[in-house]
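Objective 1b of the project was to move from sequence-level analysis to a structural picture of ligand recognition. The entry below was assembled by the postdoctoral researcher (A.K.) and checked by the PI before modelling. It contains the amino acid sequence of the target and the SMILES of the bound compound, 2-acetamido-2-deoxy-beta-D-glucopyranose.
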Amino acid sequence: MNRNISSPILKARKKKGQVRLAKRRFFVFLVISPCLLLLAIFRFLTGYGQSVQPLVVVQVATYPGDEPFELPFGPSNLPHAGTIYTHSPHSPIVHSPEPLDLLHLQMAEPIQPRSLTALLPVTSRSISNLELIISSLIRTSGQLHEVILSCPDNVLSDVRRIVRNVIMAEGTEDHLEFSLRPWDYGMDSNMAIMRAASEVTTDWVLFLDDNGLSNMDVDTRDILINPMSIPLPTGPRGVASLLNISCLAPSDDPQPASFVIPPFVIPYSLVIDGLPPSTDLGIWADFGERISRDRLDGIGGIVIGADTTSNWCHVVQSDATWWNHTTPVLNLRTEPDVPKVQNGTLSDHQNVLAENERIGTFALLFPSLRDMQIFSPVACRLQANGYLVNVLLYGTARYAEDEPMDRTVVSRGCRLNYDTLSLDDVLPAVQSVSGMSFVLDWLDTLDEWPEVIVALKDQDALSGLVTVLEQSQSTRPSLIFIPYTDLAYCEWMGSLSVQEWKNWNVPRIDISVITKDRPHSLARLLSSLSNAKFFGDPLTFRINLEQTSDTETMRLVHKFQWDHGITVVHHRVIHGGLLPAVVESWYPHSNDSYGLLLEDDVELSPMFYAWVKMTILRYRYGDAINMSPQLFGISLYQQKNIELKLQGRRPFDARALFYNHSLPHPNTPYLSQIPCSWGAVYFPEHWREFHEYLAVRFSEYAFSIDEDIVPDVRSNRWTRSWKKYFIELVYLRGYAMLYPNYADFVSFSTNHLEVGSHVKDRPNDVYLQRKELFLLPLMSLFDNVSLSMSSSGILDLPSETLPPWHSLPVLNLTGSLTSFQALIDQGQTRRTQLRRCPGPPSLAYNVRDLMCINDSPSPS
Ligand SMILES: *[C@@H]1O[C@H](CO)[C@@H](O)[C@H](O)[C@H]1NC(C)=O
Ligand SMILES: *[C@@H]1O[C@H](CO)[C@@H](O)[C@H](O)[C@H]1NC(C)=O
Ligand SMILES: *[C@@H]1O[C@H](CO)[C@@H](O)[C@H](O)[C@H]1NC(C)=O
Ligand SMILES: *[C@@H]1O[C@H](CO)[C@@H](O)[C@H](O)[C@H]1NC(C)=O
Ligand SMILES: *[C@@H]1O[C@H](CO)[C@@H](O)[C@H](O)[C@H]1NC(C)=O
Ligand SMILES: *[C@@H]1O[C@H](CO)[C@@H](O)[C@H](O)[C@H]1NC(C)=O
Ligand SMILES: *[C@@H]1O[C@H](CO)[C@@H](O)[C@H](O)[C@H]1NC(C)=O
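Corresponding predicted holo structure:
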């Protein structure tokens, strides 16, 4: 037996002739002291700068089988340098098995297949090579189960796009999963991957640097992706001593280190949640120090493998701050840098959400595990948001036989518990309402009665659920039935708060189509409506035919089959023109009734309804802080031009504008005063008020018809336009509409600018040029190659959720950034000029009050 106390107590044995290191087994064993006495050597390492806390490295040797022990002092009770401490029966010893277990002789085996998750930071250095880095990960995936990319949230969408493209090009036969974790601006990339590590669900974690597995020799790469189960950070780059930053020379023999820096592999059990650096040495040194603190051998990591292809050590030595650097803020575009410090940060939002949404219980009912897996991105996010998620799989016999009731599935990013139930036992009774008691019985077993139940639509087994729940004594949960075909596109629902879920069934959206004689356009619109996902919601479909509608248009209307609710057809007998055609096409029947107005040359994205539902729930039915009477609607169309400037049309790019103004999240949706007519939802109060406004306006009771209400906007020259008048109302009130703001102008509706009331017949090239100005790409149902990357296009939002109301940027009619207070003040000033009203308006949505008609019985 070797006796060796002060030198590193770790050796490895390797068989000659094996080419691939990963195939070897490492024998990690200890050097044993000869007697019962423990020998401990302590060294104070005080040489690293003046302000550095002294670090203690303890090296201990013992026999296997010795009594477990812990050293009888802690951080507050430090030993003296150079003293040898011995263990005697008289000294106070606390028994604790952990430290010794790690020290016991052990044999390292290869880790289980697919039990490794790689964490890859994306930095400004690496983004240009990201495709290469990701394809090399896919090609040499080893035991990898998942790759988590960690990147600043301003480039989230670009990174997602790159990853999606690579996955599509490369394919992932072994179902390597990819997911993204955004981090706050200015956050250290090391800190960010450390944080992401706490969400890993596999037993092993591979911390990569921003180069991933590229620039690495084959053997080292093999060690990292087919690692041995060594209970310590293991990688090619390590520092022997904290005293003098001396890098360990790469070698085939494992060497003990004070700490290692990425890339390295560690067991999940060693991951520390968001460890903040506690010393100047930086996060990896601190990490190694933490690990070694729990070990009697003082080892913080193991160095193995050749790392000849990079000059990391040189960098480390020449720049002590290297491993502590803050990643420069990424900027893929040419715009100036976005500042690192910001107002209303990501964590601010999260705190607001966390406070308001602690409580919430969900019940998910699915027939099979597979259905639940498809829905798991939603379930996982709800769970991560602190909600209680209960799952019942009520499939048939196959669940009953050998599987226990209470089970767990590890799905992308989370562990979900589920209960199973065989319907065989209850099937005979299921036809009757009382048969539904199996759901009630299960609900009764839950710790909390759920506020929200989500289930698959059209399931015979659940047919009586609504009735049963209505009759039950407890508070009635909100019931949501989602069709199987829409299940894969639900990821956005994970961003909703419980309050929003509870109101799921409250808002009703009416679709109102205005058409005349463009059957080709109409057919395209109807087909895009048919392909859209409605997530089980009922919607009234209304089509308004002008008096001059042609027979082909009529035929299309008769043929059209609307599967999501009732269909209403209007036909005018007196030609009205576009203004009444639009304005009278829809009227709210309650305060929960919303009108989606669509002219026939519009085409919709299949995801448009998700956007509508998500935004309406957030800003109309969510938490009080997110609601405002100033919001009059939701646009599906993304602005690409500003029409209202007196100088004429100007191109517009919200993202570029927000970059220019150093807004923290250039990808945020925003508020604009401009009413959109190319696919937008109008809110009931505001639409009613608009009707009243038009009546007063056309009566010329308050001002003459050719009065310019809004100063200096081009719409004053428009004739017969409903938007002109809506703009007036918006201006006087300081209202605004919510607009999407996705990369590359990806939109939920587009306009094909076809010859019609607005668009006059023009020479073809001029026409095509104009058309190009307005045609936008539609958000698609993403390919489902890798589900975690799919259907999240709509979640390309700050923190992957709709921002709080107060942090939405506000734009005026000519596209300049402003604030609501400025807009409201400006409207009131104008109102006073026009009407000499004594005070500000006092009644919401009341046009007589707005025009102070009661106050001035004799119109001016
Ligand atoms: C640092 O450590 C290396 C190797 O352990 C040694 O060769 C070198 O002399 C040390 N430098 C100082 C300044 O102690
Ligand atoms: C390392 O980071 C910590 C926290 O971010 C900071 O306080 C410390 O000054 C940094 N050390 C160096 C050497 O840059
Ligand atoms: C941050 O926002 C608050 C209110 O939204 C404001 O009062 C404060 O001045 C802002 N701070 C900075 C630094 O802009
Ligand atoms: C609908 O909203 C208007 C305006 O806020 C309000 O006056 C009216 O009472 C509401 N109607 C119902 C049924 O709540
Ligand atoms: C951004 O700022 C630059 C320089 O100030 C300006 O030329 C450019 O037009 C701005 N872009 C937008 C979209 O505002
Ligand atoms: C992906 O979509 C195709 C049809 O587009 C479907 O057949 C397949 O089952 C889907 N795969 C997953 C994993 O959802
Ligand atoms: C919008 O704001 C800009 C800058 O403050 C201003 O010049 C412009 O007149 C405003 N537009 C309207 C319609 O008020």
